[in-house]
Amino acid sequence: MKMLKLTLCHLYPELLNLYGDSGNVLTLIRRCQWRGIYVDVINCGVGSAADFENVDIFFMGGGADSNLGLVSNDMNNIKPQLELAVEQGKVLLAICGGYQLLGKYYRKKDTVLGLGLLDFYTEATDKNFSGNIVVDTGDYHLIGFENHKGRTYLNGLSPLGQVISGFGNNGKDKTEGVRYKNVIGTYLHGPLLPKNPKLCDEIIKIALKNKYGIEDLQELDDSLEIKARQHTLKLINSKFVSFA
Amino acid sequence: MRKILAIIIAKIAIALAKLMGHKGTNFGGEIALRICPDILAWFGSQVKKKIILVTGTNGKTSTNNMIYSMIRQSGHTCVCNKLGANLDSGLISAFINSCTLTGRIDAEYASLEVDEASLAKVMAHLKPDTIVFTNLFRDQLDGYTELDALLDKIRGSLEKSQDTVLLLNSDDPSLASLGEDLAHAKYYYGIETQMDMGSQDVDKDSVLCKLCGEKLDYDHYFYSQLGHYTCTKCHFKRPIPDFKAFIEDKGQKRELTAIGKDDFKVVRDFTTNDSYSIYNTLAAISAGGVLGFTAESVKKGLENYRPQVGRMENFYIGKPITLNLAKNPVGFNETLKIISQDMSSKVVAIGVNDLPQDGRDVSWLWDTNFEILLDIDDTIVNYTVFGRRRYDMALRLKYAGIDENKLTVAETVEDAIDSVVKNLSDTGYVLLNYSLLFETQKILKGRNEDVKADSVPSVS
Ligand SMILES: [Zn+2]
Q: Chain B: which residues have CB within 8 Å of chain A?
């Protein structure tokens, strides 16, 4: 059998680097590696617009507001390539600040940023939504930590899941994140993927299917991940343990 | 009357807490604050000479305790929150511990460590003569979300206190930008020698100029964001320090020479090459200079300084065991670097809690370079994780690439110490964040066999 290889593009790793989000990249790499899938990581910073044709997975982390402006400006240059990739069904995982930038706009006082890749929008407020969060995607539960002053409104788009505990997109409509084709936007840090191996594997599956038409993914020993999920859910609320 | 009532009740509360085996570092102060909200201002007004605040992300406790020691060596009385309880309640507790029942403080100085996010709150009550800043790193804790917001908050409270003298680290661009904006009397300290601090961090790649937003260009880089930097776009650059440090490698030790104005010169040796203690010592020496102490009493103060609980504290339980407090990626990375230089066989125990004083978000574990341990993985016989977030730590180590068979998840602190003691090795290391410190230290102390194993001056 030939060697399977996926290409992961880490967008603006220098500027979007808050809250351990690089742990998501590490988790994607490891869970591929443990299955004998090689991952090539391309770091794409400001002004280094790369050739995205061979990219299978895009990743964007969260960043300080002062860095989002730089990212937003630069991202406009790569918008056509990103749009194409999204329509081709490639995976784009964006966390917190990265998530907000994908929308129509992110407004904070006089500053309005946004790539307009998707139709949702975000308004900044003074009050922080901060704490552990549990989200039901319908197939499984996501666990994470949210910490954001932005309130995101989906404008008819599908959420990533329903909030079971925590705030989510805006603290009102119980939605969390966005899901459009294989674009996943979310406020969940933690980082997201280590304690949510099912989501990580779903991303790998999509990428393998897109590139090689392969449908099935080798099982891994996730006993430590499951224990970590049980333990964290118990810290949040003991009645959530069954969601592990 | 309300003040006296507050003090009596708080003193009783502190005594009771001590009886029950708690350190009671915040408890008494919290009660007093509730009964009498302006009690801190009242205590502060009784300090006869100077109030010194020490703040920053890392190194506050060591720096503050060194300054306290210098003040004492110069023959003055001084109130100090030595154990590092640095919220307003902790400061009040420090005053309550050294006042009479009628609330009289007989102190010429107060040297107080203040949590960087609480500085504004504290300054609403206390008017400091001098503020010593150690560094301002990006911290991942709740409420510290962004460095920019924190800097704005600090700037705001300093603007209301124009007479306060500022002592700043010129190697830290965040602090230098703070100094740039303020008209206060300012002094800078910095390391002139372009020494290698063995840092593998890449933080410098993302340090932006606080004035114009351009990336900073580093001529020399120490660690985290500390170094010799210039903005490529505007005039912003590292200020020339008033207190200059020169470092000379002398075999196993490093010698720090700090030079200020008018023959002010202090020389100090380091047994370990960790950068923290060098910066903390330099900050304290410079503070001594700013406060007008002689080089002689500054030197004596440093000699009499003993590191506090959990700062590379040594125990002996069948083997030497080192306890170190680290609360964020920079602190952990520095400690991991020290461990990675030890080639003896060892158990490494890591404890992580997520209580409010630790920060409820533990995602910073993934910004910490635990991969450093992989370089010496063959010398590590067992990794033990403990604390409320032990499973987050376990996953972090799994994804760093350690062998899961070497991993022990300990349910209690006692179990964690057992694991360090019982796994066959030459040495043991216990790293943990704040709220685990006192319980762990108590257990280690209780089981300690060797009186010779005393603290060595080292890391904070
Ligand atoms: Zn500049």
A: 138, 140, 142-143, 145-148, 205-206, 208, 213, 354, 360-367, 388, 390-392, 394-396, 398-399, 401, 404, 409
